[in-house]
Amino acid sequence: MGTATDTLMVVRCPYCVIGEEFRPMIAHLDGRFICAKCGHLASPADKDFKCRCPECSAKADKNRPESCRVNELLALWQEIQIGC
């Protein structure tokens, strides 16, 4: 017969390590999981979920074409100039 711990889902952060294992993430009531160290979010039930933690954002930026990043930097620079 199974126990309650047989069904416990352990989601681990792909960026943070404790000892020789990836760090377990903290479960929220809404089904999401968060890493207490880096803030990475995971939502196993939502396949379209995209985390916006610093690690995932940096990874996403590396996968984007250079022209997209240049356009974003130019837009940011223009916002700063208008604000001065």
Task: Choose one word for the global shape.
Answer: elongated
Arrangement of strands in the largest sheet: 3-4-5
Number of structural units classed as domains: 1
Total count of helical runs of at least 4 residues: 2
- Give the termini distance in whole angstroms: 68 Å
User: Helix-strand pattern, N to C?
Assistant: EEEEEHH
Mean pLDDT: 80
Radius of gyration: 18 Å
Total strands: the figure is: 5
The major sheet is characterized as:
3 strands, antiparallel
Q: How is this structure best summarized?
A:
The chain is of the alpha+beta class and 84 residues long. 33% of the residues lie in helices and 20% in strands.
Q: What does the model show?
A:
The protein is of the alpha+beta class and 84 residues long. The protein has one domain (8-83). The protein has helices at residues 54-63, 66-83, and strands at 12-18, 21-24, 26-27, 33-34, 41-42. The strands form two sheets. It has a three-stranded antiparallel sheet with strand order 3-4-5, with no helix packed on it. It has a two-stranded antiparallel ribbon with strand order 1-2. The radius of gyration is 18 Å and the shape is elongated.
